[in-house]
Specification:
The protein is of the alpha+beta class and 454 residues long. The chain folds into 3 domains: 184 residues, Beta-Lactamase (2-Layer Sandwich), CATH 3.30.450; 83 residues, Orthogonal Bundle (Helix Hairpins); 146 residues, Histidine kinase-like ATPase, C-terminal domain (Heat Shock Protein 90). It contains 8 helices and 15 strands. The strands form 3 sheets. Strands 9, 10, 11, 12, 13, 14 and 15 form a 7-stranded mixed beta sheet that branches. Strand 14 and strand 15 form a beta hairpin.
Length: 454
């Protein structure tokens, strides 16, 4: 809602406006409550003092009336309680102070109990002010008498408006001062946030850049550090994406270039070409392209976190079936325990195990060992070979995209360099790990997945 261009809904206000308004409102309420309590306490103190002094005056006057039953003018003992009257049981004024000479009885509700003083505040037209009256009805040998002792509240009434105005002014001044202080404090506190906002707005599609971290070690500086950490991760992600695009371009260019050259050469002298051989060579390049595209599609799905239904899988049975599914260049020894259950996507686990077995077959000299066992809460798969092994410094690099060691390129020139990358991503997608561990001479890959209890 807008009125003359001003946003009235608090949800549309800035943080500074909302904090200032909330703090001002709370302080204003506290000040109003404090002023009300203060005024009530002052008023109670004043009236309490008048009540005590009025009781003393009435008590002394009651003693005098019991002893002498005075008539006419009364001597004032307390200068504040200058309005004195004694009225008999017939409502006639029998004694009075000079201030009430010739006046009728004060218009005060009659006492309810004989011998007990009561106090009232009434309006006196003669002095044009409120008066504080203490009255008491007593029994004497001369009959019932009602005694009145009143104190004009002229000063209190005259200064009441000024006093209330002073308190209201103090509340308004204090509230305005708090609003000014809070607004300034919030503005200074949010200044680094505004700087960070401007710096983030100036970041374009190039390098992510950084934001300025303010000097005080507080929540704002922690926010700036978190923003810089996020920007650093984005920068690393952009670098990986650029590298991935470059690697994909390179990997796709090679088979496409070979396929194009073969076809161009064949078309230069079509009558001299062995077209079945040309078709077989083109088909081989097409198969390599299809493999690269298929692997890239799997990586894209794993990286995007596409939801895939999972089910309870007999891990040992799956390992035995896949390891013995086809004949390989070297024999495969299988040692898979029974009763190991995991929750996974069978097709992805088969792809992972196939990649590990194909990798082991490429490098093995005479044998491959596959084992599946339960290790505490985990299901553990190991794939070992008796090849030359993996140098320790390359055990992480082999999981990078399109990263192939020299021996791997020599043994299989048609590989894509994505098999181990896909295998690790599948393991991570299932909440597990896949590492290249120490082995007895050859390569040793260890997969760990969370096992399910029976």
């Amino acid at each position: 809602m807008r009125v003359l261009g001003v946003r009235l809904s608090p949800s549309c206000w800035s943080v500074r406006a909302r904090v200032t308004a909330a703090a001002t409102l709370m302080v204003g309420l506290v000040l109003v409550a404090g002023v009300v309590i203060f005024y009530t306490a002052v008023q109670h103190t004043v009236y309490s003092g008048l009540h005590q002094r009025g009781d003393l005056v009435v008590h002394d006057l009651a003693s005098l009336v019991r002893d002498t039953d005075p008539r006419g003018l009364l001597r004032v003992q307390d200068p504040d309680f200058s309005l004195l009257q004694v009225v008999d049981q017939h409502g006639r004024v029998v004694a009075y102070s000079d201030a009430l000479r010739g006046r009728r009885p004060l218009k005060v509700p009659p006492p309810g109990v004989v011998g007990r003083a009561e106090d009232h505040i009434v309006r006196s037209e003669r002095i044009n002010a409120d008066v504080y009256v203490v009255e008491e009805r007593i029994r004497t040998s001369f009959g019932y008498r009602t005694i009145y002792a009143a104190a004009p509240l002229t000063e209190l009434t005259r200064n009441k408006g000024a006093f209330i105005g002073l308190l209201v002014g103090a509340v308004l001044t204090g509230t305005a001062l708090v609003a000014w202080i809070v607004a300034g404090a919030v503005r200074r506190a949010l200044r680094p946030v505004r700087v960070m906002s401007d710096e983030l707005a100036n970041i374009t599609g190039g390098e992510p850049g950084r934001v300025t971290v303010p000097d005080p070690a507080d929540e704002v500086s922690e926010l700036a550090q978190s923003v810089n950490l996020t920007l650093h991760r984005l920068e690393a992600l952009l670098d990986r994406q650029r590298g991935f695009v470059g690697d994909v371009s390179h990997e796709l260019r090679s088979p496409l270039t070979g396929l194009r050259m073969q076809l161009e050469l064949a078309l230069q002298h079509p009558e001299d070409e062995d077209w079945p051989a040309v078709a077989r060579a083109a088909l081989a390049d097409a198969d390599r392209l299809q493999g690269i595209v298929s692997d890239l599609l799997i990586l894209a799905k794993l990286g995007a976190g596409v939801h895939v239904e999972r089910e309870r899988v007999d891990f040992g049975a799956l390992v035995r079936a896949e390891a013995a599914r086809r004949d390989r260049r070297v024999p495969v020894e299988i040692d898979a325990a029974e009763g190991i259950a995991v929750r996974a996507t069978p097709e992805q686990l088969v792809r992972l195990l196939t990649n590990l077995l194909d990798n082991a077959e490429r490098h093995a000299r005479s044998r491959i060992w596959v084992s599946a066992a339960r290790d505490g809460p985990d299901a553990v798969l190991e794939v070992r070979d008796d090849g030359s092994g993996i140098p320790p410094e390359d055990r992480e690099r082999i999981f990078w995209r399109f990263q192939r060691l020299a021996e791997g390129r020599r043994r299989d020139k048609g590989g894509t360099g994505l098999g181990l990358t896909i295998s690790r991503d599948i393991a991570r997608a299932h909440g597990g790990t896949l590492v290249a561990a120490d082995g007895d001479g050859g390569a040793r890959f260890v997969l760990r997945l969370a096992a399910e209890d029976d």
